Amino acid sequence: MDHHQVSIEEVARVVYGMGSEAFSKLAGQLPKVGVKFGWQTLGHFELFLNQLNPEEREAVIRGDRKLTTEEVIRLLIDQNGRGIPAHLGIKSDAKDENAIFTIKQLTNNYGEIRDSYVEAFADFPELKFLSASEFEDRSEKKKEMLLADGLISNLVRRAHMPIPTPYFVVNDYGKGKALQEIFLAVLEKMYKKHFPDRNFENYNVELKKKVRIIKNTGYDKFIAMMASGPDAVWYFPRALQGFSINAEREAMKILIGRSLALSGAISTSLAITGNVVEMVGSFNTPGYDCAAVSWGSSDDSLYFEADDDRLGFSSAGSLGKANVDYSAGLVFLG
Predict the structure, then answer these.
(1) Domain positions in the chain
(2) How does 275-287 read in b/e, with b if 16+ C-beta sit within 10 Å?
């Protein structure tokens, strides 16, 4: 057909000269030609041709080379260990993070980590932990599982930590009793141990009967894991920094299928309890959304925020607004 000899440049000149609206109107008045690939745009052809350098394009046209295709792997976590909003299907507010608010990577000594948790929860002997060797073995195996998943393995490129999870049955999470009387109490004790001149401020004094798990965040699986016996998880405190709480929850539509759970108040409390200095030691540490739970109503959640003289625990009402200093943690359950 005659159009085989028409260049893209010539077509572009006509469109430019007539205007795209007039060009489309004229085309609509002419009979159909039935040209092959007629539904494709010039932009599609340009995108396709841009995959090849000039020498390769000419070689394909001559028949000296042929094209092959391979699946494009769309990473869910970028090279800096942060979730990629576009690849996670995020439509809610998500902004570039403020990297001033950060956490240094720890050198993990499994025995010391495990012993620090046993000491922290000494007033609650009903909470049982793995032995040091079991904790190390289970943590290492789960890390191997995570690293084998290329879509999320970049999580280890920023701060991450193994957390021993105790055997503990939360009979009714909504009552908030376990959170208030055990996990926040232990967190406060450890915070005061490291910083005796600072205060832990719980601005949500009454938590009982006010905390609810958000569906499809994977957090219910974390709570169920604790009820099934002592275990270990990997915690990634800054993986979603700059995401709004709505965006953090939205990301779980995909991440929940990679054995990840969004962090709630108990898991975040556990992480801080064993990493006080690193996670909440100064103003320049991030705020931590407990995005997997609501507080009081569906329009509120909870968060931790550190300053140089205190650690605060409060409610978060602007679920749709991204805060570049804050992040919900991700928990790899394995």
Answers:
(1) 2-62, 110-332
(2) bbebbbbeeebbb
